Amino acid sequence: MSHPFQESLSNIEKRLEELTHAVTKKQERIFDKVIIDNDEFQKLFKISPGTAANWREKGLIAYSQINNKIVYKIEDINKMLDDNYRPFKK
């Protein structure tokens, strides 16, 4: 017969594995896409609509606007990250 603490610990470990799998799957879905909309972009970077607009106006991120809908190519997001990458200095 197992100790109640062991059972509780096993349940926590199982739940942690499930959550890790769910988070990994969600992240993969974002980067498997070719484009994301402005809402997804803001959530991904945890920025406000004003900050996203500022980045577009400054030319930091390429985007497409169709009527009032703004979308970004994942490759342009990666380019923005690469262009603004600052490695550690030793």
Keywords summarizing the entry:
12% strand; alpha+beta; three-stranded antiparallel sheet
Helical content stands at 55-70%
Query: Got a strand count?
Result: 3
Mean pLDDT: 88
| Proportion of residues in β-strands | 5-15%
Morphology call? elongated
Uncertain segments are none
> Helix and strand succession?
HEHHEEH
Largest beta-sheet characterization: 3 strands, antiparallel
Strand ordering within the main sheet: 1-3-2
Structural class: alpha+beta
Radius of gyration over all CA atoms, rounded: 20 Å
Number of helices: 4
Q: How far is the N terminus from the C terminus? A: 55 Å
Give a concise summary.
This protein has 90 residues and is of the alpha+beta class. It is 62% helix and 12% strand. Strand 2 and strand 3 form a beta hairpin.
